[in-house]
Amino acid sequence: MVAISMYLFAASVALVAVYLKYLYRRRRRDEPPMVPGGLIWGNCKEFGEHAVRFLHKSNKSCGDIFTIRLLHQYLTIVMDPHSYDRFTREKNFDFDPIQKQVNHNVFSFELINPRKMLKEAGKTVRGHYMNNIMQSFSKYLNETFADISTKDILGNLHEIPKGGKWCTSNLRVLTARTVFTSLFKTIFGNPRPEDTFEPMSVFENFEIYHKYFNYMWLGLPSSLFPAATKALKALVKQPCSSDLLSREDLSHYIRFSTEYMLNCNQAEAEIMGHNLVYLHVNYNTFRVSFWAMYFLLEHREAWVALSTEVQAAIDEKKQYCSNDEPVVFNLEDVDSLPILDSIVKETMRTTSGVFMVRAIAEDTEFEMENGQKYYLRKGDKVAMYPPALHKDPEIFEEPEQFKYDRFVDATFYKNGREVKNPVIAFGSLCPGKRLAITQSKWFLMCLVNMFDLELLEGQSTCPDSAYHGHEILPPKNDVEVRFRHKDSFQTLSFE
């Protein structure tokens, strides 16, 4: 009995020591206020249940900057949108450790000299490279639009519905068969018939793996999640680097990054891990496209407004081509459509879950836009959480509502001052955010040009707030839709 008592006493002392060393700390002078939380988990429960609601509540009680604790990690949150530029430019706020944490914890690899690689690789998704990518994406998208009416999900041919008959599908599956498949082929080229690394199987495993992303990012081992482990084993069954490099239609990004990593003598497993990170980033384009399509179907006035705008643009272009030629658009043309631009921005505002996190490299005096100064500790993390800004009722009237024309000729204010960056969907460092937005816009243009599409009666969904931290939130459930090709349309092409 005495031995048991001594054991329990020793265990208690050890637990207290661990708590005092890793979890407990006092607020120092001029540090941001700390949000009270649980003894072990800190603020994990409230943040996990509904991050936006929790941060708005903390904002009211603590002000525009405060510190929360997620397990053993202290995280200072900046809630002032006017301090965005100061946050992104602070040299002591370092993204490299965050990137390494994601790469290592979630995708099991490390990059050698990541800043150099990502700086150079990032050039391959901008400028003239972006035009090349959009041309490939447009080509593959037209192919998938033809396939969804002539093939089932397994790729088997079936009879094309005649006389305006409707096909039915789950919306998420429909978006995967079109947008995700087109993105996949644009990145990796056309898979060979014998490849198991092909769009729909990768999509299904990505869906599973992403459910556990936040847990693994925080450092929980993937072995705790058998479904994630199984999905990852399937995702790393990729063609080897030499096979990929032999493909003429391989993207410039994957070609450059693969050659770079080979020159650094990195292993095939690390190259495959990096390929998954890049696909993970592009996966957000799929999610934006899903939500934009859903909102267009839920708000028929938005579908009508977009269809009218796109048709007017097509009619203007048709003056310069024959009826049997594709109608050609370029980047400037796509960017000139205000309803389309507003729909995509409103979709990202409504469904964004991105967490802009930085590691604090040195003890830092951070000055907010209003002149207030706070001391932030080396070793902590600092973040801005755009979804909390996107749902701020002072910036956006009725922020929970989707309004397709919200961003048409609009300016937004906070504390009487214009908000320069009202929508922050992909963070400040993403080199491909313009490409992602353009791909989503192009998909919507082609969709309303070629198809009639409707939600089946009684079908609805909403973003799943349990996944805040993902760049774009997944839906709580899929919905069923019906679609059919329009009787007459002219194919669109990007140049």
From TrEMBL:
Q: Which domain of life is it from?
A: Eukaryota
What Pfam families does this protein's entry cite?
p450
Q: Which InterPro entries match?
A: CYP450_sterol_14alpha_dmase, Cyt_P450, Cyt_P450_CYP7A1-type, Cyt_P450_E_grp-IV, Cyt_P450_sf
The principal location of this protein is: endoplasmic reticulum
Entry's SUPFAM superfamilies?
A: Cytochrome P450 (SSF48264)
Keywords assigned = Endoplasmic reticulum, Heme, Iron, Lipid metabolism, Membrane, Metal-binding, Oxidoreductase, Steroid metabolism, Transmembrane, Transmembrane helix
User: Know the name of this protein?
Assistant: Cytochrome P450
Protein species of origin = Potamilus streckersoni
Read off the lineage from the record. Answer: Eukaryota, Metazoa, Spiralia, Lophotrochozoa, Mollusca
